[in-house]
């Protein structure tokens, strides 16, 4: 997917934000799973717009945010519509799609959004000082990537960094083991609290989609 993106391979999804702004998210027929907006991304996006989020974390406006495994960048862009300063990150192949989505939504962003390469397990110095908030949606599926993912979470955060990890619970195949391994890895470093459904968006929530709030021990 690192080649220039062609319009014929793209399709759009409109995300209506609660501030009456509409994000146009371009998705790709060609590429990895990160090329489309999944349900967990919608649930997390709507949560950061909710009263439950602001009651727990305060306003997101002005906060420094990093989105990991961003794919289309949808979650980070929602944060930027509310005035956050967002670094939207993924592997190099996803940069063209993320940048396209930043460019086509400039008129509705209240905070800066930057597409940046970040390979899990690699150097994070260009993302420091530590962000206030790290956003992740559906990043827990490749077993071989989990150690590096958790290392990056550790390196990017300090005692004041909040991490929101949203994932869809899957009950078959490698995904079950991946979820177990992820939990074991993070609980050694972070406290884990699940955000109750009652605090989430009234419409965009599901018993199968979990939002975890992590902070360093």
User: What's the quaternary structure here?
Assistant: single chain
How are strands sequenced across the largest beta sheet? 5-4-3-6-7-9-8
- Compute the number of strand runs: 9
Count of DSSP helices? 6
| Fraction in helix | 25-40%
- Between the first and last Cα atoms, what is the distance in angstroms? 38 Å
Approximately how much beta-strand content do the residues carry?
25-35%
Order of helices and strands: EEHHEHEHEEHEHEE
Main sheet record = 7 strands, mixed
What class would the helix/strand composition place it in? alpha/beta
Give the averaged pLDDT, no decimals: 93
What descriptive keywords fit this protein?
two-stranded antiparallel sheet, alpha/beta, about 25% strand, seven-stranded mixed beta sheet, single chain, about 220 residues, 6 helices
Account of the 3D structure:
The protein is of the alpha/beta class. The chain has six helices and nine strands; from the N terminus they run ββααβαβαββαβαββ. The strands form two sheets. A seven-stranded mixed β-sheet has the order 5-4-3-6-7-9-8, sandwiched between helices. Strands 1-2 form a two-stranded antiparallel sheet. Strand 4 (85-90), helix 4 and strand 5 (113-117) form a beta-alpha-beta unit. The mean pLDDT is 93.
Please give a quick description of this structure:
With 217 residues, the protein is an alpha/beta fold. The protein has helices spanning 39-47, 51-57, 74-81, 95-103, 146-156, 174-187, and strands spanning 10-16, 22-28, 64-68, 85-90, 113-117, 133-137, 162-168, 190-194, 209-216. Strands 5-4-3-6-7-9-8 form a seven-stranded mixed beta sheet, with helices on both faces. The chain has a two-stranded antiparallel ribbon with strand order 1-2.
């Amino acid at each position: 997917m690192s080649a220039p993106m062609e319009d014929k391979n793209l399709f759009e999804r409109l995300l209506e934000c609660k501030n009456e702004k509409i994000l146009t998210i371009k998705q790709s027929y060609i590429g990895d799973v990160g090329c489309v907006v999944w349900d967990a991304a919608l649930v997390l996006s709507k949560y950061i717009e909710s009263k439950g989020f602001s009651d727990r974390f305060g306003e997101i406006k002005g906060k420094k945010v990093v989105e990991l495994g961003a794919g289309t960048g949808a979650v980070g862009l929602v944060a930027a519509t509310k005035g956050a300063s967002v670094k939207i990150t993924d592997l190099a192949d996803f940069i063209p799609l993320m940048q396209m989505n930043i460019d086509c939504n400039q008129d509705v962003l209240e905070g800066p959004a930057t597409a940046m390469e970040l390979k899990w397990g690699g150097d994070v110095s260009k993302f420091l000082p530590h962000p206030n908030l790290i956003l992740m949606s559906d990043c827990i599926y490749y077993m071989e990537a989990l150690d590096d993912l958790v290392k990056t979470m550790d390196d990017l955060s300090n005692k004041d960094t909040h991490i929101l990890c949203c994932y869809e619970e899957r009950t078959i195949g490698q995904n079950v083991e991946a979820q177990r391994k992820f939990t074991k890895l993070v609980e050694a470093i972070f406290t884990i609290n699940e955000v109750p459904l009652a605090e989430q968006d009234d419409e965009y929530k599901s018993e199968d989609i979990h939002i975890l709030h992590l902070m360093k021990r």
